[in-house]
Amino acid sequence: MDKLVIEGGQPLNGIVPISGAKNAALPILIATLLAPGEHIIENVPALVDISFTLSLLGRIGCPSLVAGGRVKLDTSRIAFCEAPYDVVRKMRASVLVLGPLLARCGEARVSLPGGCAIGVRPVDQHLKGLEALGCEFKLENGYINGRVDRLIGAEIHLDVPTVTGTENILMAAVLAEGITRIHNAACEPEIVDLARFLSSMGARIKGAGTSVLEIDGVPALRPARIPHRILPDRIEAGTYLVAGALTGGRLTISGAPVPELGAVLSALTDAGCDLEIDGDSVTITRSGPLKPVSVSTEPHPGFPTDMQAQWMSLMSLAEGECDVAENIFENRFMHVPELCRLGADIATNNNVARISGVTALNGATVMATDLRASACLVLAGLAAGGQTEILRLYHLDRGYERLVEKLRAVGACLTRVPDDARVPVGTLSEQRAVS
Ligand code: EPU
Predict the structure, then answer these.
(1) Which domains, ranges and CATH numbers included, belong to the chain?
(2) Which of 3, 228, 350, 373 is the most buried (most CB within 10 A)?
(3) Ligand 1 centroid from CA 225, angstroms
């Protein structure tokens, strides 16, 4: 298993291009199941989760071709209405096939996703919404077995504004008879992108990006005439901005979804960073010390839970104390002990972490536990003195396209090595000189 070795302390200078958003690409690729025919989706990031999704669609009977960021999918025929355990256990988002398969075929069999590194993550709200549209479910042998004769529009009140739950219900409701309203819907930009894609296939949706989605069902959808372009990844953008803030230098992110970054940009400004915004580019510099800024994760447009771990890396080097409250997932502090191994001073109490800034972090060997925890360790490693080794690198491959290449291009000193190889101090700088 590969690991990442970083020699910290290099200022980052230059431009990092932002890739398409993983969490928009996943539901959009799956939404193609709703309309038989050939679909073209652009700006799809090259990530392990995307490969999982395309292989799941392949097993359902829908082959795909990938060239650069362009994916061509043929959904003319559905052979199996199933997401098996061996796929769902690798990627929870596979549960998103439930709504589209029920809408297109009237049946679906999806392995029940278990808990994961960040929380229990039930899917009760997905099922509640689909039941309101007329679906019937039986839980058998670890599988959700769903059936429906006719989807009928309904008023649905979600208990929590779940992102993939809203997407699953939305994808079924577009083919339901009559009007569906999803109240307390998630407002994340990825849902707006999905609604835009569904509309381009003929769906009628109002209110995307607000807490009430109104869907006027249509009898059938057809592939969009113009290829859909996935919106840029706001979490990748935020992660690189924090890298700039931590390491100094002058770092620009290009092709960024600036309006969707509001809470992260204002937290960075409060932390003493200077931000220059020019269209879809943001340049970050910092002349003074980092100021402590408390954040509390909230559904969009609040501070995103997917940036919480990265924010902790930044605040570990702030001058003073601040609190980070995690309000979305019950177990999303797995990175804290690893950050402490790098010298951070963090104490957790239930869902709140108190960070007392230290003057320096020091390289160590650390273990990544999930995608965003991995990103936070990379950031801390870039700022730490000496060498940091990050194990279980596969988490990063799920959500950050070409991370090593992008960071190297702006001056970072890091390399990916097989787990059993030894990397002596000094080797990385030499590699950087030739890369
Ligand atoms: N919840 C329920 N019942 C449900 C669904 C969710 O109680 O039926 C709870 C969850 O347990 C959690 C909260 O509601 O406490 C919010 O979960 P949500 O369903 O919104 O999360 P998700 O849809 O499973 C997506 C992203 C996550 C991101 C969250 C929150 C995708 C594929 N995943 O997950 O992304 O953290 O929304 O914004 O869109 C990541 O990219 O690293 C990642 C984990």
Answers:
(1) 2-19+232-434 (3.65.10.10), 22-218 (3.65.10.10)
(2) 373
(3) 31
